[in-house]
Amino acid sequence: MLHPFRIRFVNAKTKPYCLSIVQKYDYENYLCSLLLPGSRRNFALALRAFNVELAQICDRSENLAQAKYRFQFWREIIEHLFDSSNDSSPHHTPLERELKEVPS
Predict the structure, then answer these.
(1) Tag placement on the chain: N or C end, fewer CB within 10 Å?
(2) Cβ pair 83, 99 in contact under 8 A
(3) Range of the domain at 45
(4) Residue 97 falls inside a structural domain
(5) Where is this region: Disordered (predicted)?
(6) How far is the C-alpha of 8 from the C-alpha of 5, rounded, in Å?
(7) Is residue 20 part of a domain?
(8) CA-to-CA distance for 45 and 87, rounded, in angstroms?
(9) What's the predicted TM-score (pTM) here?
(10) Residue 6 forms part of a structural domain
(11) Non-local CB neighbours of 21 within 8 Å, separated by 6+ positions
(12) Is 33 part of a structural domain of the chain?
């Protein structure tokens, strides 16, 4: 069971950002997330916002090389997240913060 106070966004700016991009680019899942309890909603919004970010990489990139670098950036973030030797590192993305709180 997740402890309610542990499921939160660390930076006050990240929750509105995740909420706004999911609302703008993934409206159906935005509506579904509103039905979730608050303790689960933050994780769902962070995950959906991550999906939006990944889905827009090719559209936002001017060329294939730039798109590859952006995908590489996210790949490294995810690999870093699941590297157990980095447990004491700060969490740089909302998804990273929320995934660290999910029990194994």
Answers:
(1) C
(2) no
(3) 12-84+92-101
(4) yes
(5) 83-104
(6) 7
(7) yes
(8) 23
(9) 0.69
(10) no
(11) 49, 52, 53
(12) yes
